[in-house]
Amino acid sequence: MGFGIKIIYLIFLLSFLTFNAFAEEPTPFGLILGKSTKKEALAIMKKEGARLMNSGYRVIKGDIVNPFVEGFELKNVPIENIQRATFWFFNGILFQIVYTFPLSMDKDEFYVMFENLKSKYGKPKKYVKPYLADGIALWRFKDVEVKLLAPWVSSNMYVIYTHIPLFKKAEQSDYEVMKKETSIPKKGL
Description:
Shape: globular
Order of helices and strands: HHEEEEHEEEEH
Distance between the termini: 77 Å
Strand order of the largest sheet: 1-2-3-4-8-7-6-5
Helix content: 25-40%
Number of helices: 4
Strand content: 25-35%
Number of strands: 8
Largest sheet: 8 strands, antiparallel
Radius of gyration: 20 Å
Structural class: alpha+beta
Number of domains: 1
């Protein structure tokens, strides 16, 4: 390999590594997953015109809920064609946002959303066309993952923003709550 080609290769490699190492994590509506509090998120969304429809603790199984994981379902979120948005908090810190959109049988909405997300976040790390399979596009940043999901048999499509470290802590919390609740003997048995 000639010296000039080595230099070009090195410049390309450094620019690629620099972009991936310093790519900004997504901040929908200015919210920072893994940092924004429940109070901040609700205030920002109210200012955007969204309305709180439902709230509650995450159901683990049956009537067992995790009091450390709380969700809020919002309507009137200012995103075209959105049906609802669900914001999840672990110990009061935002760790996941789930946007729900309508999805037709031909999955055209998936392709439109994919192009919108691709123009914002670049080429995804994973892409599966929604043809006889779940449509998936996945972007990864330092601690945040953005997933476009169009289940093959569904009338809904999802854009999911997840702070991976906090999501894992919430899952561990679910496990611990479930273990504690199922180890308590039930009265009358």
